[in-house]
């Protein structure tokens, strides 16, 4: 973790606010009477205190990001100005609220998000716990026994979390337990450089843990120590502790980022950018990543289209977007909801991803039946990916075994076959119509060597098309070439099928 970067604000109007409103040290405000050209990179916040001129619309579009455009209440927006407001998910703000917003809310629009997960390997069990302890790979730790009548420490995380002055951290505990077990979470912040002097402490009850809890540090820098207490009798399964830079209600990871959670405390995150409001909607599934957050923001933004980013945080770096019906319905519903908001049909949607993200695109493609699926290093046989860990790729992707066990309850040959079939049964039952499959694959792929060939052999829809490009190497040998090809094919589809040119 690093300290939060400076927040850059653009203000367009007739009066410079720097002399009118006090600004925190980590915020810089650039006043422009007239915006003549777009900046090299967009601002973190943009304020309009007057109606933009026609020649300012595109520079403002490029200077701003979705959910970060604010327009003062007296400004009238018409025509292209209203289009800008809609495309950037703009918000109105009263002049009387500006001072408070700049002092207290602007800090939540920092440019670089951060999130991480502490897996079971970082968990230590209290010496006072006398029950049984079972480690389930990299997925969870199960404590079973009598925790006592009063809440006492059952486990703690070895790695402290640095928290800077003025910073807020979101914490989410992933766990399951028997009804006879009660839990609570204690967060202790130490004085910087000390392991004994306590600066402040937070305690969260089980009821409070039903929601994300926040550590809002208004004191000095100092690392926090997280401890889990338990009482009662039964089983407590501790899956993971997630910590993320908090935007205090202004979005998860990115401003406007959405979080969905199942009854089993499993999360999925979506970020929607309306772009220019014109087809297509580009949906991008994040690949495997140990640091939490969205992948591909800048890549998708440069395409200029509406886009939807989807990411998940289960297991070590993701669980291929498969899960319970409740979990999968959250993802399906999100895609359909934004299609509906834009007024787009399935043939105005492109599903895409790299590596693990390709499976998300293929799996939910069975529901969407999009115009195109753009896939780099496709993975379709997730059971086989796990099986290859034993001999073909030992130690290369151990999380694949956790995925297999998590989704099928076992790691035997039958489980491998069931997990592979889970996808192909869906794929084979889908009428793909005129969908295009644009695929770049590794010829010597050590994760799923047959994915591309099987896509071809299983694709029986008359109008469907497949375009493939093979690159020599194993799964992770030439990611750079795959990404370059991926972007070039995106631009090609947008130009040929939607008469669009991507932003430079």
Summarize the helices and strands and which ones pair or pack.
Layout: E1 7-12, E2 27-32, E3 45-48, H1 57-63, E4 69-72, H2 80-87, E5 91-93, H3 98-105, E6 115-118, E7 123-125, E8 132-136, E9 140-157, E10 161-163, E11 168-177, E12 181-190, E13 198-205, E14 213-216, E15 222-245, E16 258-261, E17 267-273, E18 281-285, H4 297-302, E19 307-312, H5 325-342, E20 349-354, H6 356-368, E21 372-376, H7 382-387, H8 399-408, H9 413-428, E22 436-442, H10 451-458, E23 465-471, H11 479-498
Parallel strand pairs: 1-2, 1-3, 3-4, 4-5, 18-19, 18-20, 20-21, 21-22, 22-23
Antiparallel strand pairs: 6-15, 7-9, 8-9, 9-15, 10-15, 11-14, 11-15, 12-13, 12-15, 16-17, 17-19
List keywords for this structure.
ten-stranded antiparallel β-sheet, 11 helices, flat, Jelly Rolls, alpha/beta
CATH superfamily of the largest domain: Alpha/Beta hydrolase fold, catalytic domain
**Fraction in helix:** 10-25%
Q: Give the domain tally.
A: 3
Category by helix and strand content: alpha/beta
* Architecture per CATH nomenclature, i.e. the level-2 architecture of the largest domain: 3-Layer(aba) Sandwich
CATH topology of the largest domain: Rossmann fold
Distance between the termini: 32 Å
Q: How many helical elements?
A: 11
Parts with pLDDT < 50 across at least 5 consecutive residues: none
Label the overall shape: flat
Count of strand segments: 23
For this structure, what is the CATH class of the largest domain?
Alpha Beta
Mean pLDDT: 95
Proportion of β residues?
A: 25-35%
Quick one: biggest sheet?
Answer: 10 strands, antiparallel
Computed Rg = 25 Å
């Amino acid at each position: 973790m690093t300290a939060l970067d400076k927040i850059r604000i653009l203000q367009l109007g007739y009066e410079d606010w720097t002399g009118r409103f006090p600004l925190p040290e980590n915020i810089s405000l650039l006043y422009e009477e007239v915006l003549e050209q777009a900046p090299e990179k967009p601002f973190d916040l943009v304020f309009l205190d007057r109606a933009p001129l026609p020649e300012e619309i595109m520079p403002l579009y490029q200077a701003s990001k979705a959910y970060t455009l604010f327009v003062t209440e007296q400004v009238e927006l018409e025509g292209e100005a209203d289009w800008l407001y809609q495309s950037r998910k703009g918000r109105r703000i009263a002049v009387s609220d500006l001072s408070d917003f700049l002092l207290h809310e602007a800090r939540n629009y920092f440019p670089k998000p951060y999130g991480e997960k502490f897996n079971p390997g970082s968990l230590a069990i209290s010496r006072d716990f006398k029950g049984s302890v079972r480690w389930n790979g990299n997925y969870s730790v199960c404590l079973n026994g009598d925790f006592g009548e009063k809440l006492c420490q059952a486990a703690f995380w070895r790695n402290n979390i640095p928290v800077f002055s003025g910073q807020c951290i979101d914490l989410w505990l992933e766990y399951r337990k028997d009804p006879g077990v009660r839990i609570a979470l204690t967060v202790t912040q130490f004085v910087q450089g000390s392991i004994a002097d306590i600066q402040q402490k937070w305690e969260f009850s089980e009821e409070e843990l039903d929601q994300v809890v926040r550590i809002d540090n208004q004191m000095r820098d100092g690392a926090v120590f997280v401890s889990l207490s338990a009482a009662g009798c039964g089983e407590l399964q501790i899956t993971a502790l997630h910590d993320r830079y908090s935007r205090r209600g202004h979005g998860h990871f990115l401003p406007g980022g959405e979080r969905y959670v199942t009854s089993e405390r499993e999360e999925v995150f979506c970020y929607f950018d309306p772009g220019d409001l014109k087809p297509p909607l580009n949906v991008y599934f994040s690949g495997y990543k140990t640091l939490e957050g969205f992948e591909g923001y800048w890549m998708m933004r440069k395409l200029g289209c509406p886009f939807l980013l989807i990411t998940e945080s289960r297991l070590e770096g993701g669980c291929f977007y498969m899960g319970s019906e409740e979990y999968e319905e959250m993802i399906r519903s999100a895609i359909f909801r934004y299609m509906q908001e834009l007024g787009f049909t399935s043939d105005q949607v492109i599903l895409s991803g790299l590596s693990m993200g390709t499976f998300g695109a293929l799996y939910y493609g069975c529901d969407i039946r999009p115009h195109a699926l753009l896939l780099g290093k496709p993975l379709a046989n997730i059971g086989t990916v796990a099986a290859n860990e034993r001999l073909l790729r030992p130690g290369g992707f151990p999380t694949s075994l956790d995925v297999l066990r998590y989704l099928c309850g076992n790691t035997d040959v039958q489980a491998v076959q069931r997990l592979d079939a889970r996808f192909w049964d869906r794929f084979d039952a889908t009428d793909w119509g005129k969908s295009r499959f644009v695929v770049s694959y590794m010829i010597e792929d050590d994760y799923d060597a047959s994915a591309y060939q099987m896509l071809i052999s299983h694709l029986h829809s008359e109008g469907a098309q497949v375009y493939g490009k093979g690159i020599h190497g194993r799964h992770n040998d030439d990611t750079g070439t795959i990404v370059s090809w991926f972007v070039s094919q995106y631009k090609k589809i947008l130009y040929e099928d939607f008469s669009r040119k991507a932003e430079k």
